[in-house]
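Fold sample X.
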Amino acid sequence: MNTSRKTTKKSWKTKGLMSFGMVLTMIILMFYLNEELKAPVDKVIAEVSSKQITQKQENEIIKQEPIKEDKPASKPLGKVVYLTFDDGPSQLTGQFLDILKENEVKATFFMQGGQLQNKNFQDNVKRATTEGHYVGAHSMTHDSKRLYTDGQFVHEMEETLALINDITGTKPKLVRAPYGSVPGLDNEHLRKQIVEANIKLWDWTIDSLDWKLKNNPYQIVENIKNGTSRDVEVVLMHEVRQTLQVLPEIISFYKERGYAFGVYKELGHFPINFRNDQRL
């Protein structure tokens, strides 16, 4: 009786040890399995973290790169003349374009908003840009008091540029100040507004005085000939009949003198203003 009880006791003890061993074995196996499964996950997390750090570093490098500021381009090399015409569009615009086309010459036009609003003139404004000419702004009103004294210069130029965009689909930035930037833009505040509006401005190097030579058109040619002395010239003319009459002769003069005919290019902008303001 006592022997049977001892045997039973040993049996239960043995079974208990075996069960404990199996449980311990399972725990050990689960631990190693878990570690094996965990390793690839940790690897993936490490790779993602590494990429995030790399991307962050790249972003920091990009942020640290200095912003390149546009600097005024230098004047074109060689002898170049820019023929420019103010106060259009007009009834004569088409005839100016005909002469320029016949002579294979491109020009730069500075047009007024009040004239641009005339639907009868708009086809020739489109034609000018289609044929490779540049159309810039010359204000809405050409009113000195409103533009300079009342400080409406930028507002009027932006309104005119918007009209040109509506008509031609182009987005010009170049303007010409009525009566020139001196004395009109003596005010530094006005010039600062022009810079902030990202508008560029051109005056001229030769004034043909054509507007007051209605009865003496050939004096226009003489004025231009006498004024030509630089390799790069910007000639101020207007859409008036006396200029139309002598335009072929003006073109011939520059061809004989070995000048190429330039048209304004925004990417190649260089300052031509009486203020010698390199920002404009």
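Fold sample Y, listed below.
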Amino acid sequence: MKTMLAAIGLLAGTACPALGATIVACPANTSAMDCAFKGDGAIQAAIDKAADGDTVRVRAGVYTPRAYRDLPYKEIIVRAFVAVDGKRLTIEGEKGAILDGSAGLPTTAVGLRNADVTISGLEITGFRFDIEEDDIYEGHGIFAVDSRARISGVTISKYQKMGLTGRGDTILDVRDLRVLDGHVATWLYEGAYLRLDGGVFRNNDSSAVAAYNDSVAHLTRIAVDRSADDGLYAEDDAAIYVSDSLIVGSGPIALNATGKSRIVGRNLALHGNAADASETGVTLEGVVAGDPRVDADYRPLAGSPIRGKGIGPAAETR
């Protein structure tokens, strides 16, 4: 609880990093004239050059992991294609800036350790592991350790491990996130805190959010669509608070709280799940029954029971 209250206080006072220099990273085949670095290693080179408060602007194009940076944490090593270690900066992706792990070395796309980072506009896809179960952590999207990260407009897809991870004392402030066609969409561990407003979690073979230990998640205006191993899952003393959201086609349980954990849901549309809630640990208020009748972007169609109720990622922002 102390961690959660501290996180809420910090997020309420969060400001963007101070304006500094802008360092431009470009793909190898670019004709742009303002590139500080070009090629697959351009983003890491720009981060290494950046001072606190600087912005790394990632030009449109595909960046493939040809090298990595190891970030040790406790018993594991996060093997990162793009690593930010102990810096405060912004990584700003142009539309069409893609980190593609389907070729090149097995790595995690972005690793953060003791960092304070704003990340926007990136598409992260295809990141994979070399060995499925070992202490080298590859195959993840964004993996944050003891860091603060503001993330917006990011898509993570076709990843083999976890899409977005917070460990240690990490604070994640996230808007407009899409995590698609992978394994565990969001993994919170130890004392990590997540605030998410607006997200789509679709066709993942595990949970949209899995929270362990003393971690806490506050989720608003999300869509969980076809999670194959629980929609939202909490264990140990973790807590998940979810509102104005829809969870459909998921199983075995849409909202599953085990141990001393809890899930509190308000103003939810639950439909087509194998089961909506575990027998204990889940508190629900204002559940909308029946088919929510939404389009592919989760906007309510004519006759939808959620029309005007502020439910889902396409709902009006309050």
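Sample Y note: The longest strand covers residues 76-85.
Also: The helical segments are 2-12, 42-49.
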